[in-house]
Design brief:
single chain, about 700 residues, nine-stranded mixed β-sheet, alpha+beta
């Protein structure tokens, strides 16, 4: 076995990254995304990669995939028909929600859609109290009544969420056994299996999301699994939102884990790159066809959060709450904005230039692609200003029509604003760069980090085009361009580990905590984690189980996740947990109170199967002939600019901007005042000179 393959579906292209396990050599294949059937694009991409790299399918050891199926189903409201079964009196939890609003001053703000209509929400006469003790037993007659009512409903999946089931799941399990017997063809999701944590609304929301997308994800993955097997490739793994991969069976138990799998892969690849070049402090910047995403990596650690909403504006502005459906699963902490190469430029009613959130996507795409697009996009502006070579994208396989882009910007933007076309195109870039700089600020400056102490890793098809301009805004001193930047997220899919996260509520102050009870919860989660890793074929020597806990001061409403020192649960370890929480609280919020009691809310376990880490190198190829063309820069205007390749830059060792480095899958823009270097692995480093 010698090859690993990773497939990432983007808004415009589906990327397949390959890495040779023996040498670390990387390669990329790009095909157009197929929105009508994403799986078709995946198979076309795999076939293209196998052919381009001369790969024998029998020599492939690992295939991983990042899917947008779950997110798209929620964004488009095209999930399964779901029945939700609740404790009597709690039928309407999904609609009652919480009071969070994205805009406190917008009286006309629409509430998020409800995933389960009221006619499909059933009640059961049963009750646990807040200590997990039975108040009203669940009678067999109640179970049979629910089964009979469900038979009359035309639903495709069933979710069950009983009050305090996270403390005592006996009633949920009893009903679940009967439902699985009565409806073997329907997926059944129990909240005590999906999310055994405190907070009723988040628990029912996460369980409902799993049921809503479960049948669609299963249909997609089963068909794709079969097609991948038909190519002679091994079993399929799926990228999770936590930055690890899982097999298909594990994913179908918890479909919410597949939310935001693609963006997570890029951050994991950036962290992998940082370890390789000994740069532990990074800002990951991924700009594709529809969105731009930023994440911070500090001391080599990728931050995750469980405060995430999918659907609504929460998918565009992740720091907003009250716009989508909360899911309490670990998600790589990202700031995301609707700013990609396909983002459409337009003029609002007040005469102001805007970019996004609407995107031209893969079909019809930017005007310059010649696929029927008529609205000018960021890519069209990049072509007009000379950043992109109309005859170079994908090695010339996707020619771009600069004249068409020029006419679109002239008609839709320049003429209405009374500008010349170059100024209008420059305005489009200024607006989109401002939006993306905001995402970089959110993950760095607004969270107490000095961006000047970090390196910006830029990838995605459009990331290296705009990276230096963004670094200038935040005073970031260095930009790192990795191998196959246009498919770097796909490369992250083959450099990650298997991972599954588990949690259970344990609610007590540390001074009153029972170490034996905490240990029992950890042991139960560890048994599940070991079983998952064993089923996935992970050798014992590569299994890692890491313990942590959600802690807070007693009067607080939300928690911080803190690793459990040394993994122990005795009194000394719990004192260490309290100390670690105080330190973490001071880091996040700028203050701490060591005289105040610390409360444990949830205990967590991360089960990881380490895959052998592969250092990767850039495929330089032969140096292309150097050329020159006029390129527009903000401070210099139109400038005669040297055009070279990564191999050409490597041969020269370094070069000062203004400079354009053209690759098959992206273009690197080196403005005046910046210098580009290539190291022995073929990685490009851009460093900013002193500001005048």
């Amino acid at each position: 076995m010698a090859w690993r393959l990773g497939v990432d579906i983007g808004g415009t292209f589906t990327d397949v990254a390959v890495i040779d396990e023996r040498t670390g050599r990387t390669g990329i294949a790009k095909v157009s995304t197929t929105p009508d059937d994403f799986g078709r694009g995946v198979i076309e991409g795999l076939e293209a990669a196998i052919a381009a790299q001369g790969i024998d399918p029998a020599g492939v050891s690992f295939v991983s995939h990042a899917t947008t199926v779950v997110t798209n189903a929620l964004l488009e409201g095209k999930g399964a028909r779901v029945a939700l079964i609740s404790t009597e009196g709690f039928r309407d939890l999904l609609e009652l929600r919480r009071s969070a609003r994205a805009d406190l001053y917008d009286l006309n703000q629409d509430p998020p859609s409800v995933l389960v209509p009221r006619r499909w929400r059933l009640e059961v006469n049963e009750r646990m109290d807040a200590q997990g003790e039975v108040v009203t037993p669940l009678a067999d007659a109640e179970i049979e009544r629910v089964v009979a009512e469900l038979r009359a409903l035309d639903v495709e999946a069933i979710a069950v969420c009983f009050l305090f089931a996270f403390l005592n799941d006996a009633h949920e399990q009893a009903l679940g056994r009967r439902l699985r017997e009565a409806f073997p063809d329907k997926p059944i999701f129990l909240s005590s299996e999906v999310l055994p944590e405190i907070r009723e609304f988040e628990r029912v929301s996460t369980t409902a999301v799993c049921a809503y997308v479960g049948p669609i994800l299963e249909s997609y993955l089963r068909r794709l699994e079969s097609a991948v097997g038909g190519l002679g490739l091994p079993g399929l793994y799926v990228m999770g939102s936590n930055g690890g991969v899982f097999d298909v069976e594990e994913g179908l138990k918890m479909p919410a884990m597949a939310v935001e799998s693609g963006p997570a892969a890029g951050v994991i690849a950036a962290a992998h790159l940082g370890r390789q070049v000994d740069k532990p402090n990074l800002i990951s910047f991924d700009m594709g066809g529809t969105t731009a995403k930023a994440s911070l990596i500090e001391n080599g650690t990728v931050e995750t959060t469980s405060e995430y909403e999918v659907g609504g504006e929460g998918n565009v502005n992740r720091w907003l709450h009250g716009t989508g459906h909360p899911i309490r699963v670990p998600v790589v902490d990202l700031a995301e904005v609707s700013a990609g190469g396909g983002s459409i430029a337009w003029i609002d009613a007040g005469g102001a230039l805007r970019v996004g959130p609407e995107s031209a996507g893969a079909a019809p795409g930017p005007v310059c692609y010649g696929r029927g697009g008529t609205a000018p996009t960021v890519t069209d502006a990049d072509v007009v200003l000379g950043y992109l070579n109309p005859h170079h994208l994908l090695g010339g396989k996707l020619p771009m029509d600069r004249d068409a882009a020029w006419r679109a910007i002239e008609t839709e933007i320049a003429a209405p604003l009374g500008l010349d076309v170059t100024a209008a195109a420059a305005g489009i870039l200024a607006v989109v760069n401002h939006s993306m700089a905001e995402a970089l600020r959110i993950v760095s400056v607004e969270r107490g980090h000095d961006a000047r102490e970090f390196t910006l890793v830029a990838f995605g098809g459009a990331g290296p085009v705009h990276a230096a301009a963004l670094a200038d805004v935040l005073d970031v001193p260095e930009v790192l361009i990795p191998p196959i930047p246009g498919g770097f997220s796909a490369l992250g899919l083959v450099t990650t580990d298997l991972r599954r996260d588990y949690s259970k509520t344990y609610y007590a102050t540390i001074s009153d905590a029972d170490p034996a009870a905490i240990e029992a919860r950890f042991k139960e989660m560890e048994a599940a984690g070991r079983a998952m890793l064993e089923q996935s074929g992970i050798d014992e020597s590569r299994r890692v189980l890491e313990r942590s806990a959600d802690c807070r001061y007693v009067k607080q409403a939300y928690e911080l996740t803190v690793p459990l020192p040394e993994g122990g649960t005795d009194a000394a370890a719990l004192d260490g947990l309290a100390d670690a929480f105080h330190t973490r609280h001071a880091q996040v919020y700028g203050h701490q109170n060591r005289d105040e009691a610390v409360q444990i809310v949830n205990v967590r376990l991360s089960a990881t199967g380490r895959l052998p880490e592969l250092p990767f190198t850039a495929e330089l190829g032969e140096a292309a002939d150097e050329t020159r063309r006029p390129v527009w820069f903000p401070d210099a205007g139109e400038t005669d600019c040297l055009i070279t390749s990564r191999a050409g830059l490597a041969a020269a060792g370094s070069a000062d901007g203004p400079l354009i480095v053209e690759e098959v899958d992206t273009t690197v823009v080196v403005p005046p005042g910046w210098r580009a270097d290539v190291d022995e692995r073929g990685f490009i480093s851009l460093k900013r000179g002193e500001k005048v």
